[in-house]
Structure formats: structure tokens, C-alpha cells
Amino acid sequence: MTPLWILFILFLLFIIHLRRRKRTLNPRRRLPPGQPPLPFIGNLHELLGDLPHITLRNLSHNRPFFATTDRFSYGGLDIAFSPYNDHWRRIRRFVNAEIFSAARVQQSMCCPSELHCYFLRQSHRCLVLVSSIKTFLSLS
After folding, report:
1. For residue 9, is it within any domain?
2. pLDDT tens by residue, 37-52
3. Residues 134 and 88 in one domain
4. What start and end residues bound the annotated signal peptide (predicted)?
5. Residue 73 lies in a domain
């Protein structure tokens, strides 16, 4: 190994040591028992295991219930919070046919282009103002 790699590994070990030391010195932080997470990836390596698709599927079934989600999503029946079943497929078909149809997308595209033109005109005015101030300051 080159000395640069050795220095990099030592630096990473030092960072890990500092993070663990900081955690143990903070008495207010009470975490449940478990291994400390690795930098950047956390405990993802423990979550995936041998069969990551099954682990992630089981994790998706443990979705928590929130009262606000229930209230604002009509009892969990909208497209975002509905479980995957016939109702969800009907909602998806409706959304694709009505909201994401070509005519509806084209209709919504005119507004951003008008906004772009407006912002371009405003930015051009600002550039003209800035250039005139610069010329005024250079003349004085």
C-alpha cells in the first residue's frame, strides 16, 4: 500500500474514534442497544443481510400509522398511502388518464414558459442596471 492510502485509512479510523468518543461523552443521548453505525452508510450493512429484497419488503410492511396521514389522505386511500391492491391500481389508472394525459401536461407547460420569459426580462433589466452603475463608477 502506498503511504497516501495508509494516511487515508488512519484518518478514517481517527474520525470513527472521535465520533464514538463524542457519543460516549454525551450523557443526554440515550440510544437503544445496538452496534454503532459506520460513517456514511450507518447500519445499512446489517439491514440488508443475505436476502436484502425480503428484508426491505418486511420493513415496508412495518409502516407506522400517523393521525395526520390518515386525516389528509382520506383514511389512507389516496395514491401515496394506499396499499398496493385493486383500489391503488384504479387510482393510478385515473391519475395517468386524467392528470398526466398529454393534453393536461401541454396545458400546464404554458405557465412555466411565461414565467421563464418574465424572469429573463427581469434578469436582463438587472444586468443593464449593474452595467450602467459600473460605467458610472468608472467615470467618476
Report:
1. no
2. 777 777 777 777 778 7
3. no
4. 1-21
5. yes
Quickly list H helices, the chain. 3-25, 44-48, 52-61, 67-72, 86-94, 102-139
Does 6 reside within a domain? no
Question: Who contacts 34 (Cβ-Cβ below 8 Å, separation ≥6)?
Answer: 43
Is 103:110 a contact under the CB 8 Å cutoff? no
The pLDDT tens digits for 11-33 are: 888 888 877 776 655 666 676 77
The reply to whether 75 and 46 lie within a common domain is yes
Three-state DSSP state, 38: strand
Phi and psi angles of residue 44, each rounded to the nearest 5 degrees, phi first: -60, -35
pLDDT tens for each residue of 90-133: 988 988 888 888 887 777 766 566 777 777 788 878 777 777 77
Q: Is the dihedral of CA 16, 18, 19, 23 positive or negative?
A: positive
Please report the sign of the dihedral spanned by the C-alpha atoms of residue 59, residue 64, residue 68, residue 74: positive
- The cell for 8 is 487515508
27 domain residue, yes or no: no
| Domains in the chain, number | 2
Range of the structural domain that residue 88 is part of: 40-100
